[in-house]
Amino acid sequence: MIFNQTDFDTYFKHYPTKDGFYGNYGGAYVNDQLKKAMDEIADAYFTICKSSRFIDELRKIRRDFQGRPTPITYLEKLSKRIGKVQLYAKREDLNHTGAHKINHCMGEALLAKYMGKKKIIAETGAGQHGVAIATAAAYFGLECEVYMGAVDIKKQAPNVARMKILGAKVIEVTEGEQTLKEAVDAAFKAYSQEYENAIYCIGSVVGPHPFPMMVRDFQSVVGIEAREQFTSLTGELPDAVVACVGGGSNAMGIFSGFLNYPVDLYGVEPLGKGLSFGNHAASLNYGQEGIMHGFNSIMLKDENGNPAPVYSVASGLDYPSSGPEHAFLRDLGRVKYDVIGDDETINAFFALSKLEGIIPAIESAHAVAYAVQLAKKLNTGSILINLSGRGDKDMDFIIEKYGIPEKITL
Ligand SMILES: *Cc1c(COP(=O)(O)O)cnc(C)c1O
After folding, report:
1. 164 part of the active site
2. % residues pLDDT > 90 (the chain)
3. CA 320, CA 103: separation in Å to the nearest integer?
4. Is the Cα torsion angle 230, 231, 232, 233 positive or negative in sign?
5. Does the pTM exceed 0.70?
6. Which of the residue ranges 155-159, 324-328, 344-348 would you say has the lowest mean pLDDT?
7. Measuring CA to CA, which residue among 183, 165, 163 is closest to residue 175?
8. For residues 249 and 203, what is the distance between their CA atoms, to the nearest angstrom?
9. First vs last Cα of the chain: how many Å apart?
10. CA distances from 282 to 246, 326, 334 (A)
11. What is the pLDDT of residue 179?
């Protein structure tokens, strides 16, 4: 167990620092204009989001609109199939819109409303964040502009349609590779020109301060609920908690409920097709310190020090960096970051679907696959998996690429 209670009793008081640092990681590496906008959001966060009015309203929204609390499900058939370890899933797939992202989007949009902003500006890669933020904007009656690379727009037609139906404007970005990185740059640029009227809403625990902290805090509902539910269900804490890590928001959410408890925490990064350059997105495992998108963290670099091309079978995990707090928790040794590849992930995807009647998002299937491996190794105890989302969005891709396997492989 990599854990010393006294080190973590005061963790949330100390991290991040006032300037948004977790050790060397984090910060706000943006131009003066954007810095001013970020400072405004940080100030608003500390006053508004800590008020009982805000907290009460968010609580009500989570209950009456999102469908929280989400349950914990005991994965009985999967557990029996593997051996003696008991596997459980925190069901973030049962959120409205089908994933955990709505947790921070509703928080960010509620903050926008309290700040008197009229418009939300965001970027999206695969479109999952775009759909969640468009949903939040519709709920609060805010204008919404989502920047999206031209390549992604072509690939993710159903999510583009969803955003438009929800009333958002999808703005095509045609610079560079025409994917997420360029979409972030374009969203930042648009935001710096109208931050008085608009608020920028990021999709994970990444970006300049205060976003990694804010998104973590909005997601922490997952971990707080999970700890209470798990202990009342089983009478004890889980031995391990496993979550997939792209930018790292679902992982930070569930980890925050367990950071100062004696529970082993595992963050799972996508190894994709393997270790060679461009074939994975396991930044915390194989990256180096570096700044991108306004924050310092661990990232995968090419030979010129720029963000490397990345790949994962799960489009929500193919980001060349991860949240600064993950980099910090890695260095502290509090969370173990490990990898799982495409093949094991797809096997776990079909296993969970067929054995338990739960079709997971391919992102979440990474956590399931890793938990299966861990269970075989531990041979005793319990593992709680954060099931970050449901797989409806992945159906066409799965059927086209893999078909239906004859039998379950684990
Ligand atoms: C976006 C997404 C992820 C990855 O994002 P994190 O910020 O790392 O949580 C994981 N699972 C699902 C279902 C997603 O939509």
Report:
1. no
2. 94
3. 23
4. positive
5. yes
6. 155-159
7. 183
8. 8
9. 26
10. 9, 12, 18
11. 87
Residue 364 CA: nearest ligand 1 atom is 11
Burial class (CB in 10 A: 0-12, 13-18, 19+), 71: exposed
Ligand 1 site, residue 86, Cβ cutoff 6 A = no
| Active-site residue, 101 included | yes
Q: How confident is the model at residue 274 (pLDDT cuts 50, 70, 90)?
A: very high
Distance, in Å, from the CA atom of 321 to the CA atom of 181, rounded to the nearest integer, reads: 11
Pocket test for ligand 1, best of 131, 135, 202, 317 (most atoms within 8 A of CB): 317
pLDDT tens for 2-30 read 567 677 888 998 999 999 999 999 999 99
Query: Which of 192, 269, 388, 393 is the catalytic position?
Result: 388
Residue tagged active-site, from 101, 113, 181, 393: 101
* Averaged pLDDT for residues 95-124: 98
CA distances for 81 relative to 86, 348, 361, 380, angstroms: 11, 12, 21, 14
* 197: Cβ contacts below 8 Å, ≥ 6 apart: 117, 118, 119
Does the beta carbon of 244 sit less than 6 angstroms from any atom of ligand 1?
A: yes
Determine if ligand 1 sits within 6 Å of the CB of residue 317: yes
376 is catalytic: no
The share of the chain scoring above pLDDT 70, in percent, equals 99
Strand, coil or helix: what is 299? strand
Mean pLDDT of 180-185: 90
Of all protein residues, whose CA lies closest to atom 1 belonging to ligand 1? 316
β-pair partners for 55: none
Question: Is pLDDT at 171 greater than 60 in this prediction?
Answer: yes
Distance between CA 17 and CA 13 in Å, rounded?
A: 9
User: CA 333 to CA 3: how far, in whole Å?
Assistant: 8
